[in-house]
From TrEMBL:
GO BP: protein catabolic process; proteolysis
Entry protein name: ATP-dependent Clp protease adapter protein ClpS
Record keywords: Hydrolase, Protease
Gene3D superfamilies xref list: 3.30.1390.10
Top-level taxon of origin: Eukaryota
InterPro entries in the record: ClpS (IPR022935), ClpS_core (IPR003769), Ribosomal_bL12_C/ClpS-like (IPR014719)
Pfam families attached to this UniProt entry: ClpS
Entry annotated with the keyword Ribosomal protein: no
Residue ranges of every copy of the Adaptor protein ClpS core domain listed in the record: 82-148
């Protein structure tokens, strides 16, 4: 039974010999030891127990990245975050203040009474107030829900992070 392994490194075979490999190289191992690359470390997996005949390799366990250490893939993935947007509440002369507070608490997840009152007061006194900064898709949905409940709202790109 053959095993296919992807190894991209300079691996010592003996004291004077090294295996140089590149991405895309394939190796098939039939008996003896199989090599596995885990987190940048090469480990050997024995295909047989000592003193026994051929056997089946156990599936290698993928080690998780320790906290505080991120892989290159994780760092690149974080950089692809969508730009943040502001959801803006505009003052209106139609809705009562209590109703505006109730709608804010209903539509925005985690909105507390104190925060909702502050946002409503700021919109009342200044003409508008930032309700939340989030991704564009979330901002569009919050704006839609605020409008469905009769409030005047809009979104705009925000500078900085979410």
């Amino acid at each position: 039974m053959a095993m296919e392994t992807a190894i991209y490194n300079r691996l010592p075979i003996s004291s004077n010999h090294f295996l140089n490999s590149r991405q895309g190289d394939k190796f098939y191992l039939f008996k003896g030891q199989a090599l596995s690359l885990t987190g940048g470390m090469v480990t050997a997996l024995s295909a047989t127990a000592p003193g026994k005949g051929g056997g089946v390799l156990d599936r290698p366990v993928k080690e998780k990245t320790p906290p505080g250490r991120e892989s290159e893939f994780d760092i690149k993935k974080k950089k692809k975050i969508t730009p943040p947007y502001r959801v803006i509440l505009h003052n209106d002369d139609i809705n009562r203040r209590e109703y505006v507070v109730q709608v804010l608490m209903k539509v925005i997840p985690g909105m507390t009474l104190d925060t909702a009152v502050n946002i409503m007061q700021e919109a009342h006194h200044n003409g508008l107030s930032v309700v939340i900064i989030c991704s564009q898709a979330e901002a569009e949905e919050h704006c839609r829900q605020l409008r469905r409940n009769g409030l005047l709202s809009s979104i705009e790109p925000a500078s900085g992070g979410c």
